[in-house]
Amino acid sequence: MTRSFDLDRGTCLSLAHMDVAVAVRSRYMKGSGDQETSLHRLMAGYFLQLVDPDRNQSYTGNNVRAFSELPFHLVWTIC
Asked: Per-residue confidence at 1, pLDDT binned at 50, 70, 90?
């Protein structure tokens, strides 16, 4: 079962059961932890562009989801 949320004119797909999340991770993120870290780094870069569009550390973006997601992905880039 999946749930879809409309956040700031975008869609966020949430996997409702942990078994499905594990299956998706094992199929699409096989290999070392480096691949998962790279994915989090990519996502952090994307959300950083949304929260700081001028790239001057003013953080003037207006995308609520980006502000919410950025810390999570930044933490996983250093794990």
From this structure: very low
On whether the CB atoms of residues 29 and 39 are closer than 8 A, the answer is yes
Q: How far apart are CA 62 and CA 50, in angstroms?
A: 8
Three state DSSP letters for the chain: CEEEEEECCEEEEEECCHHHHHHHHHHHCCCCHHHHHHHHHHHHHHHHHHHCCCCCCCCCCCCHHHHHHHHHHHHHHCC
Global pTM value: 0.66
Q: What is the pLDDT of residue 25?
A: 75
Q: What does the alpha-carbon distance between residue 34 and residue 32 come to, in Å, rounded to a whole number?
A: 5
Average pLDDT over residues 1-16: 56
CA distances from 30 to 16, 22, 40 (A): 21, 11, 15
